[in-house]
């Protein structure tokens, strides 16, 4: 299909360019549609590529600019053709990786906004022209200085995948403080067809990072803390084309200090064994923060657990192992584990984990020569069973 329509596109663009050259001279004082909006609005700039005053030599909106970094004379243009519609509209910006009459090209093309000082968020709609040739690659770049290529740094990039023809996808990206210019760079692809961009809106406020929901902290047997939560409101874990920021995981805090990082957004539970062995009661405030792309954290959702006094003798063991010698000074041996794989953790009397390791095989040795003298708790997880035991480390 792409080869059939491109000749018609070429003729249409040529006629439009000739008309536009004449109109440009007659309308030198036309209103600039990309100018900043009134100061009271959260919107700094809005561009839908419809009815714009443009530079006829490269069909970009007034105050926008383009860079043809690969120097092939093919750059971002406006699509003004019925076979290449915009997002719910007639027009959009596009950059080609295949050109009728020429063949495959290797684009490295920048489309750059006007100055958008104070910008903190951008939303836009992106599409490919042909679902059979969909692997267009692009990046959103930001500059805190000027509009030269070397001024821009990548903020987000993706390779488009095969989607139904005409499908558009919204993207929302928070911008770093100090952003002055934003560029869409079409590159790292060839012999597809065309990448399309439309309905760009730039805001002075960042997108809200929604927190987790339904957070519950529960004290389990053996003084373990169970933390459970649910996805942020509106999040759909199976969706790959969400318009909002992308959820990447969770950060868990205990009394204000980072306890764990979870880098799987589908994980909705965490078990804390830090306080299994207590000589005194302790209150711990747990907080969970949703983490989005660019390490953006949501507000914290918190709950409190009261840990009770325990002794190592009171901790139940579900697995019977041989752990020796006890006391130990250099090497501690563990025998009788599940041969398919086990793991152990070693805690000091304050509940701090000092050693941990995964083990393959029924027997293993643990080097304890660097540990200080004193009592420790070893926890061995083997299969679906757990064994805990108090050991003593001595120094000669």
Automatic annotation (TrEMBL):
One of the Pfam families matching this protein, by short name: Cleaved_Adhesin
InterPro entries: Cleaved_adhesin, Ig-like_fold, Secre_tail
A GO BP entry: proteolysis
Domain of life: Bacteria
GO molecular function term, any single one: cysteine-type peptidase activity
Domain Secretion system C-terminal sorting: 323-392
Family to which the UniProt record says this protein belongs: Belongs to the peptidase C25 family.
Descriptive protein name: Putative secreted protein (Por secretion system target)
Organism annotation: Porphyromonas loveana
């Amino acid at each position: 299909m792409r080869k059939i329509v491109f000749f018609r596109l070429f003729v249409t663009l040529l006629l439009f360019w000739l008309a536009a050259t004449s109109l440009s001279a007659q309308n030198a004082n036309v209103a600039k549609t990309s100018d900043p909006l009134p100061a009271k609005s959260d919107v700094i700039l809005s561009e839908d590529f419809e009815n714009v005053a443009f530079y006829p030599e490269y069909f970009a909106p007034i105050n926008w600019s383009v860079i043809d970094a690969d120097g092939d004379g093919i750059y971002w243009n406006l699509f003004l053709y019925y076979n290449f519609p915009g997002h719910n509209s007639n027009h959009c910006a596009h950059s080609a990786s295949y050109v009728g009459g020429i063949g495959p090209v290797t684009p490295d093309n920048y489309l750059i906004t006007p100055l958008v000082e104070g910008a903190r968020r951008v939303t836009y709609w992106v599409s490919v022209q042909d679902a059979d040739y969909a692997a267009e690659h692009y990046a959103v770049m930001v500059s805190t200085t000027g509009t030269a290529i070397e001024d821009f740094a990548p903020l987000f990039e993706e390779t488009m995948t095969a989607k139904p023809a005409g499908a558009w996808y919204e993207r929302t990206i928070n911008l770093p403080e100090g952003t002055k210019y934003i560029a869409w760079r079409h590159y790292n692809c060839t012999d597809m067809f065309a990448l399309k961009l439309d309905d760009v809106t730039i805001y002075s406020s960042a997108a809200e990072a929604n927190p987790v929901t339904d957070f519950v902290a529960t004290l389990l047997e053996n003084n373990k803390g169970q933390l459970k939560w649910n996805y942020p409101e509106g999040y759909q874990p199976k969706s790959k084309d969400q318009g909002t920021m992308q959820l990447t995981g969770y950060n868990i805090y205990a009394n204000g200090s980072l306890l764990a990082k979870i880098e799987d957004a589908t994980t909705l539970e965490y078990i804390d064994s830090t306080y299994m062995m207590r000589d005194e009661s302790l209150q711990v405030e747990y907080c969970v923060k949703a983490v989005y792309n660019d390490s953006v954290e949501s507000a914290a959702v918190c709950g409190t657990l009261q840990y009770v006094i325990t002794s190592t003798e009171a901790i139940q063991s579900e697995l019977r192992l041989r752990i020796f010698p006890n006391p130990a000074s250099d090497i501690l041996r563990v025998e009788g584990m599940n041969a398919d794989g086990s793991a152990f953790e070693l805690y000091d009397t304050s509940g701090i984990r000092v050693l941990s390791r995964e083990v393959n095989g029924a027997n293993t040795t643990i080097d304890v020569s660097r540990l200080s003298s004193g009592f420790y708790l070893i926890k061995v997880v083997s299969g679906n069973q757990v064994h805990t035991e108090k050991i003593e480390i001595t120094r000669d």
